[in-house]
Amino acid sequence: MLRYSFIFALICVSACTTPEFQPAVMEPTVLSMMECEEPRPQMCTMIYDPVCGATKNGLRKTYASDCTACSDGNVTGFEKGACP
Fold first, then answer.
1. What is the rounded CA–CA span in Å between residue 59 and residue 21?
2. Which residues, 6+ apart, have CB-to-CB distance to 69 below 8 Å?
């Protein structure tokens, strides 16, 4: 009986954790990543709408826009907003 009480108490305590104490996931979800289309743009407007570009070697860099990100041949995809 003591064993079941301990298991029940453990379940109750684990259910009460708040999101602040859970580790943050830094990897973007697959759904939020947009792929760069071919052919790549040769010229882009000077619009500033930052995106976070992911390169072939896994690095991330903030670009001024999706067009400037995809004009870089090393970028495989991007997501809206600046990189963290």
1. 27
2. 36, 51, 53, 63, 75, 78
Taken in order of first residue, the domains within the chain and their CATH numbers are: 29-84 (3.30.60)
pTM of model > 0.70: no
pLDDT digits (tens, 9 = 90+) for 26-82: 454 445 889 999 999 999 999 999 999 999 998 999 999 999 999 999 999 999 999
Element (H, E) at 79: strand 75-80
Distance of alpha carbon 39 from alpha carbon 51, whole angstroms: 19
Query: How far is residue 55's CA from residue 5's CA, in Å, rounded to a whole number?
Result: 51
